[in-house]
Every structure is written in structure tokens, then in C-alpha cells.
Please model this.
Amino acid sequence: MSDIIQLLPDHVANQIAAGEVVQRPASVIKELLENSIDAHATRIQVVIKDAGKTLIQVVDDGVGMSVTDARMSFERHATSKIKLADDLFSLKTKGFRGEALASIAAIAHVELKTRRAEEEIGTCIKMEGSQVVSQEACVTPKGTCLSVKNLFYNIPARRNFLKSDNVETRHIIDEFQRVALAHPDISFSLTHNNNELFQLPPSNQRQRITNIFGGKTNEKLVPVEEDTGIVKVSGFVGKPEFAKKSRGEQFFFVNNRFIKSPYLNHAVVAAFEGLLKDKSYPSYFLYLDVDPKSIDINIHPTKTEIKFDDEHALYAILKSAIKHSLGQFNVAPMLDFERDSDLDTPYDYKNKNASAPQIEVDRDFNPFKNEGGLASFSGGGGNVSYRRERSAASWEGIYTGLETETMPESSANLKEIEFESEEVTGNLFGAKEEEHGRSTFQLNKKYIISTLKSGLLAIDQHRAHTRILYEELLKNITVSAAVSQQLLFPLKLQFNKHENEMLKEIKDSLEQTGFVFSEFGRDEVEITGIPTLIAESEVEMLLEKLLADFEKEVPSDGFSQTDLMAKSLASSMAVRSGTLLNSAEQQHIVNRLFACKEPGLTPFNKTIFTTIGVDELDKKFA
Ligand code: ADP
Ligand code: MG
Model:
């Protein structure tokens, strides 16, 4: 039997490597931008057609390549950036694998035009599926122009796997922003189908951030600055009140390279402790400079993760630097983190003398004499509460008290007792039921409890309301023309490019829910009408949440887009648990819920209500 192991032909090896390097048009943009930066470009222009599927072109004014280098650049493992293994530990460039151009040329039609400053004539090379189609001298400006056409033309499976143009454009904008943020001193532009999306002049960090994320960003930024032996930190965090519903604007750059680090992210969030509302994310643009020897970027092929030698120290430094900044800019309540504010003496008390506490005793008090005082116990888990202030005559009072919303808010234990009692009274004083049909009450500001002929019904108020709104929204979007309320003053909202792209994508469906957009500018959206179901003050929050949801789960077709939108809007508009509802509101929810097509489950497939049958109760009393 003959030997069976063979070396793969180059073009096959390149295609396989390409699978790792190039997942989508955005990966090509990233690689080409990084090459231009490594070539010391001061100006980089990106042009794309059809979300990069038809054309990606990156033009720079960098050092360019000689005739031989131009040809070599498409070979695998061909790089000018490292020579020895040791160089890996002192990387100053973005690239070092020498894989990008070889990979891209394996899966697209590539044209390279390049010229070095010292040469008069440049080189033009055309590649197709790793093969050189032509190489000739050409007239071209100093620098390099790389055009990548028909990406994945020879891998149909890959090409079909690409998402809609809108989604792919979003990925491209993401990559573009990361690189542009990391290099504010370089001028960048991005043009999509003859539409200029970005035009970024050379600037400082703050200007670059503002140019990308819109004019109002400037006032939201708090500078962070710290220089230690281990790391130099600079950049900005967003003021807590502008924290977002999505993680959209969170950027770490290490030695000008965008990275993701859940660990460092945790440090930032920890610095914001106590300043953020639930489920909101602080924005940050943080630039860390460390000794290249102390990091290893080699651990991930797409290089957004790196390994630090001294992670713990970085964590501590970052956290304290941000805390310090937030404090300095009067964002955090306390400036001095060492001092315990409880020990501070109020000014008035400084000159007073301490006096001995006095004890007053009610000598007539007899705990065994029952003056109509009712003792109620709630025991369990060593947590026993004892209460004697309510009289027996006030049993009913407890019940009506609940309905008129005068329930004391203070002690959780107290509430439990009252609800327990109330279930009893509900049955004892069943007359109420006849007065207004089915009676309901609220438990823990979370559940609506109602009686059925055959038992008890417990409804999760938030989930029920979500279901109701969801069906209503779906109906609005798909069947009837939604009613919208005209706003007295148009609402102007700012979104970043990325969010703007998404908004554009769902604009039509939004309009069907009742939104009226009068202007759809570059980074400002003007709204003149909103759905009747929504309060004006909620619009920004709702849209932000909606965009965050779209970000997480990219819907592929019109139907799932509508569905996702209805789900997102419904769950952000629905009453939260913890909201007190009066009995009319409770009734309303119960009635509308059971008019729904699917009252049992939320659009997220969660149980909405449960029942406890009389027979179950009977068993408990057996
Ligand atoms: P790497 O960037 O890892 O070295 P690439 O395949 O991306 O590998 O590029 C191969 C080589 O081609 C680079 O090392 C560089 O010498 C050259 N090159 C690529 N793009 C440019 C450019 N825009 N300007 C000048 N030289 C470039
Ligand atoms: Mg490269």
C-alpha cells in the first residue's frame, strides 16, 4: 500500500486559514485597517458596496510596498513585522501573523495597488483564489489601495451564511469604530454605497469619541487619568446618569488595540457601584498602555482577547482610578473612600455636651391584661415577629386598608402577616365578592390574587401585562393601523451610528406601532408622534431597550423582527413587580389577560398564572 499523507496545496491551505481569519466582511475591514496603520498611514479611506459583499476598498497614504514585497505580501506567513520568535514579546504592530492578505486572496477577487514614496511608478497585482492573475506597473498615489471584491465567491456556503446587508454593515461599523477610536490622530472615512457614514479628522481622544457618537457625548464624559509603573490609564467614563440599557459603548484599548476583557469590565462596574440603576451599563472608553512584554496577544486568532501578566494589579488600579475620577467630578456621593461618614459629627452638635439618655417607663402596663389587643405571630426560621397593636375589630380594617393602599411599607414581615390574615378575611367576609363581581387583591406588589368558583387564582402582574401589551402591539403592527398621539413638541433623540443603522432597519415596523418620525438625520432622530400606549417620558428608554434587544438577537426576517419588537416593547412597557395597583387596575389586567389568545404564557414562554383549587386547600386542612 502506498503512502497516503500529502501536503495540502497552497490554495487549499489558504482557504482553510481564511476560515479563521475572515468570518465576514467586517473581518476584512479590520485586517486591512490594521495593515494601513502598521504602514504608518495618516489618512485611511474605506469604501464599501452592499455591506462589503460586493466591494471593500481601503486606501491609505502609508509607506507602500516595493514590487517584490507587493508580490510577497500574499504569501502565507509572509510578514515584515516580526523576524524572530522573541519579537512576539515586544510587539508594536497590529499584525504579525502574515496571514491576512493570503487568506483574503484565497476567498475573493483582490486588487492591490501600491507605491513607495521613493519610487515613481507603482505596482498593481490582481489575485483570484490565491492565483496571481496579473502583475504590472501602474500609476498610483503614494501608499496602498486594496480592493476586495466578491467576498466568498468560491465558498457559496460561506456567502449564504452572511446576514442581511444591515447586519453586516453594523459589524463593519463596529470594527471601524474600534480602530478609529484607538487612533484618534489618524484621519478616517467610511463610505457605504456612496453614503458617507463617517468623516473623522485627526483629533484628540475626546473629539474622536464625540465625532463618532454624536455631539452630546462630550458633556457625558468624565476623564480618567492614572500613571503607575505597571500601566498608564487614560480615557473617559460616561457619567452614571447616562448609563445605557445596552453594553454598546464599552471600549478597552490596550496599546491602541481594541480588546474585550470581562475581568477589567468588572473593575469598571465595581467602580460605579451604587451609582447605576439596575440593568444599566456604564459607557467607557479606556486606553491602557502597558509594557508589550507584559502581555500576550497571541492567544486568540482574531486578537480581541489578551493575557496580562499582572491582572490583579490592573484591576485594582483601574477601579481606583475610575472611582477617583467619578468622585472628583462630583458624580460619586463621597470623595474620601477611607472615611466612614457615620462618624462625622454634624456641625450643630460640636459644642453640645453629652447628656445621659433617659428612660421612660409606663408603670401601668400589664402585658397579661388584654385590652382588645390582638397578638399575631409569624414564626419560621428563627425569625419571629410579634405584634399587638391591631384590635380584633380591625380585621376588616386590614382588608379595606389594603384596598385603599394604606398598607404600611416598612416591614416585610408585617406585610406577610397581613396578607395571610387577609386571605382568611377574604373568605370570612365573602360579601365583598358580590359587590363588584370578582374581587382581586395584590400580594407583595407582585401578584394579583383573585378567587375562582373552584379556588384561588394567582397572576404575575408584570407577565400578565406583558402578554396583554404584546398581543395588542402585534395586532397594531400586523392588522390595524395604529393610533398615535401627536406630540406637542417634537422629541429629538440622539443615537450613535450603530443604533441609527438598526433604527433604520426597524423604522417601518415602528411606524406601524404608532411612532411618527419626522426626521431621520445622521445622528439625530426627530419624533412627532408616539403610540397611544406609551408615555412620552418613556420613549427614549423604550427605544434604547429595543435596540439592545435587537443587538442581542438579530432577527433574520420581517416576521421575527415584528415579533421581537412587540416582545421588547411589551416587556419594557408592562407594569413592574413592586408597583402598587389599585383594584380597578387589577381588574383591568385580569379581564384583559383572559381576553388574550394565549393567556397562560408570556411571549418569552414564562408562566403567567397559577391556580390553587379548593380541593388542594381542603387537603391542606385535612
Ligand atoms: P501581517 O499584517 O500579519 O504582517 P498581512 O498578510 O496582513 O500580515 O500583510 C503582509 C505584509 O504585507 C505586511 O507584513 C506588510 O509588510 C505588507 N502590507 C500589507 N498591507 C500593507 C499596507 N497597507 N501598506 C504597506 N504594507 C502592507
Ligand atoms: Mg495584517
